[in-house]
From TrEMBL:
This is Cytosine/adenosine deaminase. CDD domains: ATZ_TRZ_like. InterPro entries: Amidohydro-rel, Metal-dep_hydrolase_composite, Metal_Hydrolase, MTA/SAH_deaminase. Residues 54-417 form the Amidohydrolase-related domain. Pfam families: Amidohydro_1. Signal peptide: none annotated. Keywords: Hydrolase, Metal-binding, Zinc.
Length: 446
């Protein structure tokens, strides 16, 4: 039996139904689970002094493309809209292989962990030169973060009217076969699972209608979740109207892509009817505010979604369309954008943090985390509010208004992944050396 006692936390934001906030509280972690919350708790295990810290549930990242960490700030894509951005980067990505996928995932997940993230999804939809989803899963396992990998795919290349180059698309039968392989090999449906797997065709403009439908059938037969991009920008909606004769939400519904086992990335351009559809079907949304700003896609109607009852979580999106992977920064950006669009009272700091924690966990179907509660998984972020960024704050728990951008400590399944602001589970300096070498080679500088 292993125990860790987080002692005398300045504040604990539980994210429970009553929005309980505790002061000067202890949290006992035992065998990966929160075993006790209170005062003057005792342990024979390790004690972590949290008197200067605000404790939150671990943040949840509901959308990422980790492989893109090797192509941050590529000059040709810095000022492009979505389709042009993709066309700039596809020729670079087709040179990747298994090691690039492993190292980019390792460094990207470490960056997320430092921003408070304990659970991340990843949407990997291209597999050049022998790369497999296994490479990213191995990186997550080595780091020790909770991981929801999705087996993405592209099947319509440029010669058939699609956007990706033909070298990056796969045969649809091979895609479905590999989905079955990775689900059987890695998916863990049990409570406390460290790895789950989903099925995730890339987008309506890179796969066929048949693959969308067959992927949904396969996912439901296997009991796994489904993920794709939807209604990301005006080009996306125009493509749907031209090719399918309907808006993206209707296209999704027609092919079985709505329901509590589905979450869509972006949804910047959902209209009122589509929002109502997602609310009625309990379809989830991964909101990626920084990437949406970076690509000029627009401001997603998050306030309207939440008011309608849509499950909404946050995503950093790919490292080549955000160029950072900060979940706490994403939460602040989400809050600010809703205020720009709807007024200063549209989203509070605590409401945005709830979307970043419990909201994301619910989108990913994880009811075993996302809150600080006895019996749930010991996934916790500790934010030191005694430093410069919080100086002068009258409300240390309002982290998104005045607070640190990196965690002091991070626990996943009761294991300390970040200790005193440093990754504790791997040699991050060595990983960064290899990452820099790869990036220079890809840029023609190595």
């Amino acid at each position: 039996m292993s125990e860790i006692l987080i002692r005398n936390a300045r504040a604990v934001l539980t994210m429970d139904d009553a929005e309980t906030e505790l002061s000067d509280a202890d949290i006992l972690l035992r065998d990966g689970v929160i075993a006790g919350i209170g005062s003057r708790l005792e342990t024979t295990g390790e004690i972590v002094d949290a008197r200067h810290c605000v404790v939150t549930p671990g943040l949840v990242n509901t959308h990422h493309h980790l492989y893109q960490g090797l192509t941050k700030a590529v000059p040709g894509g810095q000022d492009a809209l979505l389709f042009g951005w993709l066309q700039t980067l596809y020729p670079i990505w087709e040179r990747f292989g298994p090691e690039e996928f492993y190292v980019s995932a390792q460094v990207g997940l470490a960056e997320l962990a430092l921003s408070g993230c304990t659970l991340s999804s990843d949407h990997l939809y291209l597999y050049p030169n022998g790369a497999r989803l296994d490479d990213s899963i191995a990186a997550a396992q080595d780091l020790g973060v909770r991981f929801h990998a999705t087996r993405g795919s592209m099947s319509i290349g440029v010669s058939n009217g699609g956007l990706p180059p033909d070298s990056l698309v796969e045969q649809e039968s091979a895609i479905l076969e590999d989905c079955i392989r990775v689900i059987d090999a890695f998916h863990d449906p049990s409570e406390g699972a460290m790895v789950r797997v989903g099925v995730a065709p890339c987008s309506p403009f890179s796969v066929s209608r048949e693959l969308m439908r067959d992927s949904a059938i396969l996912a439901r037969d296997k009991g796994v979740m489904m993920h794709t991009h939807l209604a990301e920008n005006d080009e996306d909606v125009a493509y749907s109207l031209e090719k399918f004769g309907c808006r993206p939400g209707q296209y999704a519904e027609d092919l079985g892509w709505t329901g509590p086992d589905v979450w869509h990335a972006h949804c910047v351009k959902l209209d009122g009817q589509e929002i109502d559809l997602f609310a009625a079907t309990r379809t989830g949304v991964a909101h990626c505010p920084c990437s949406n700003c970076r690509l000029g896609s627009g401001i997603a109607p998050v306030r309207a979604m939440l008011d309608a009852g849509v499950n909404v979580g946050l995503g950093v999106d790919g490292s080549a369309s955000n160029d950072m992977a900060s979940l706490i920064g994403e939460a602040r950006q989400a809050m600010l954008l809703q205020r720009v669009q709807n007024g200063a009272d549209a989203m509070s700091a605590r409401a945005a943090l709830r979307v970043a924690t419990r909201g994301g966990a619910e989108v990913l179907g994880r009811h075993d985390c996302g809150q600080v509660a006895v019996g749930l998984r010991a996934d916790l972020a500790l934010w030191d509010v005694s430093g410069l960024e919080s100086a002068g704050s009258w409300d240390p728990a309002a982290l998104l208004l005045a607070g640190p951008q990196k965690v002091r400590h991070l626990f996943v399944e009761g294991r300390q992944v970040v200790r005193d602001g440093r990754i504790a589970t791997l040699d991050i300096d060595a990983a960064l050396v290899r990452h820099r070498e790869m990036a220079r080679t890809l840029a023609g500088l190595g």
